[in-house]
Every structure is written in C-alpha cells, then in structure tokens.
Amino acid sequence: MAEFVTVDRGVAEGIAVIRIARPPMNLIDLQVALEVASVADRLAVDESVRAVVLYGDERVFSAGDELAELAGLTAARAAAMAADFQRALGALARLPQPTVAAISGYALGAGLELALGADRRIIGDNVKLGLPQIKAGLIPLAGIRRLSLLIGPAAAKDLVYTGRFVDPEEAASLGLVDEVVAPDDVFEAALRWARRFISGPAKALAAAKRVFEAGTHGHDRARAEWAELFDTEDQQIGTRSYLAAGPDAARFVGR
User: Fold this and answer.
1) To 5 degrees, how large is the angle CA 47–CA 48–CA 49?
2) Segment 165-177, tens digit of pLDDT
C-alpha cells in the first residue's frame, strides 16, 4: 500500500486522479516518486481509465526535492538509485492515456519534473514554478531534456542554470504551462480538459503519445503506429463515421 500517493476514481467516470499527499509541502523523495510510478503503471493497463489527473491539493502541488534525503547520499548510493528515480519522475509520460497536471501553490524541483511528463499543465495564477536544484549543487535528474523540448534550449538553460522561480505570466509566455486559471479553479479546469477524452479513441491517443515520446525518432515511430491502428475497432468506426457524418460523430469503443 502506498503511503503518500492515492488514486481517486470517483470524481468522474473514466478519469483517475493521482493525488500526492505528503504534508505540509508534498516534497518528492524516492519513495513518493516510486509510489507515483507504481500507481501509473497500474493505470496504464486499466482500459476503464481514459484520462489521468495528477494533483497535490488546493494549497500546493509539490515544493520540490526532499533535500534531507539527498544530503545523506554518497556518490555510490546516488548512482545506485538514479535510474529508478529518473524513471519514476517520468511516469506520466509513459501512460497511454492523456494526462494533465493540476498545479496549485508551487511546482518546484522534482515536483515540476513530474509535471513535465504530463501532456498538459494547468496552474493557478499565484503559482511559482522552477528547477532550483542548482542552488543545492545539483541538477534536475529527469527534467532537463523535457524542459528543453518544451520551451527550447536557451530558455531551459536559463531556468536550470539560475534555478530561478517563474511566475504564471512568464510560465505561460514560455510555454511551460498551458492554462492559467484562478487558484480555486485549478482542479476543475484539469477535469474539464480530461473529460474530453472519456469517449475518445483510446488506441489512437496512446499511439500519438508514443510518437511524441519517441522524440527524434518520432517520424519512424509514427509509420509503425499509424499502420497498427488499422487493426483497431476505433479506426474502423472513426473512418466510416467521418465519411458518413463528418467529424465528432463517431462513438468510439476504446479498442
């Protein structure tokens, strides 16, 4: 049983909410990261889940790394745990379902790295974001490549090298976040986005995610994913429906 991470399936049919609850600031240590990854791995094979929301609470998403844990590490111990920690922080990117991070208060360090794996980031208009690990003599373990792909190498280097915080206006202008709302509306805005995929073509959405995740090899991956979709019921339903009645008329079955 997870100690700090839970899944709520009762908010809306087809949507799973991963909640991080490690008060007071939802700091991310290896245990929390592995618990998120374990939950994500289970949701990945659950065909009843069509979209996933990652959330802390109304006060804070995550204020970053658990430095008390990191301060005691030797280089050998850090090397032994790095691969597991890095993989866990990328858990959202491996989910086949569309994912959205609903961010309140702070998304710093490892917390922001987790959120960078989501397909969409929605924040309150009072949120602070950043990767301040450099101020502790460290670097982000899982966020540098994702950040660089998201906002470009120059802007990513600025944030990583300085470790500075970013306010909502700058985060939106950089493309670091996708939507800025009132603090009380963060969770509902994330649900509103997630609901769009409850009846969507699950296999095609998963294929698109794998192509995006393939990065520089995405063009090659797209050929294989595109061809394999012709074995799905959703492709047959969608294509015939589009021909007969135009877009948005299909009733997909997720197979």
Assistant:
1) 90
2) 999 999 999 999 9
